[in-house]
Amino acid sequence: MSTKEQNNEFVEQEEQNLADTIQEEANETTLNEEEVEQGNLEAEQLKKQLEEANNKLLRVQADYDNFRKRTQREKEELAKYASAKLVENLLPAVDNFDRALSVAAESGDYVALAKGLDMIFRQLMSTMEAEGLTVMNAVGTPFNPEFHQAVMTVETDEYEEGIVVEELQKGYMLKDKVIRPAMVKVSG
Questions:
Q1: Where do the segments described as Disordered lie (predicted)?
Q2: Which residues, listed in sequence order, are joined to residue 36 by a DSSP beta bridge?
Q3: Mind listing the pLDDT tens digit for each residue in 30-39?
Q4: Is the pTM of this model over 0.85?
Q5: In what order do the strands lie in the sheet containing 148-154?
């Protein structure tokens, strides 16, 4: 084989190699374009999912805000009318006070007024006790600053030191909470 033939064969071989390389690159480019297109589709799907998630989050936040506002309104309304039942239960005693004062003013019978006031007091205390009010009995018990307010100490042979000897003002508890401590004299 001559040099020229060798050169021609070499050139043909190189042209074929170059053509193969170009074809491979074209295939890779096509592959890359397909991958890019696939990536674009995936990106669009992810954008849609993100948008849906954001919308869901906004709805949940709005629902929570509405729930919080509704709960606050209900709490305020409950506090506003919490004493309605107690007031309703006290109205008969108020009516009886009104009647007793009217009758006493017309008749001038103050003995009957005193009896009527005693009956109204018992009715009022019965209503309060039904709501959980109890009177503290302090006389003869050891002084306790959680239940008693000492206003003075007195010397006495009748009680040991630190014992309540006299109650100047009654103390009251509502269920298990002191709402007014008893004002007392304590032995010293």
A1: 1-39
A2: none
A3: 556 777 788 8
A4: no
A5: 148-154, 182-187, 164-169
